[in-house]
Design brief:
By secondary structure, the chain is α/β, with parallel strands linked by helices. Helix content is 45%, strand content 18%. The protein has a 5-stranded parallel β-sheet with strand order 2-1-3-4-5, sandwiched between helices.
């Protein structure tokens, strides 16, 4: 079973999208751990390591996606957990998608991404396609 951690970093309090994606992943047979809103990067990493997740997914609407991705990926490496892929969804300008992938983000799901697309790419990234 694929285990996905969904996190809402920072001060962004809108989590309807994160909860909706979490439910879609659960309905697709994945185990989802939702950390809740206003999480620090360290809290997200600690939860991911403790839960032994296959993927970390962040929902970001506040425009800090580049900074958060860079910080999270660096701290994953510091903790020896750089093998946990990071995916990001939310309000992500098209011009930033390549920048996020260059940082090491495995996939980006901007507004308008379908549940099927998210589910299939998460399965592929986790290496557990059916």
């Amino acid at each position: 079973m694929i285990r996905v951690l969904i996190g809402k970093p920072g001060l962004d309090g809108h989590d309807k999208g994160a909860k909706t994606v979490a439910m879609a992943l659960k309905n697709a047979g994945m185990e989802v751990i939702y950390t809740g809103r206003h999480q620090k990067v360290e809290q997200i990493i600690n939860a991911a390591i403790q839960e032994g997740v296959d993927i970390i997914g962040l929902s970001i609407l506040s425009g800090v996606h580049l900074e958060v991705a860079e910080e999270l990926l660096a701290k994953l490496k510091e903790r020896g957990a750089e093998g946990i892929p990071l995916v990001i969804g939310g309000v992500i300008p098209k011009k930033d998608i390549l920048l996020l992938k260059a940082l090491g983000v495995a996939e980006v799901f901007p507004i308008g991404s379908s549940f099927d697309e998210i589910i299939n790419k998460v399965k592929a990234i986790a290496g557990k396609e059916e």
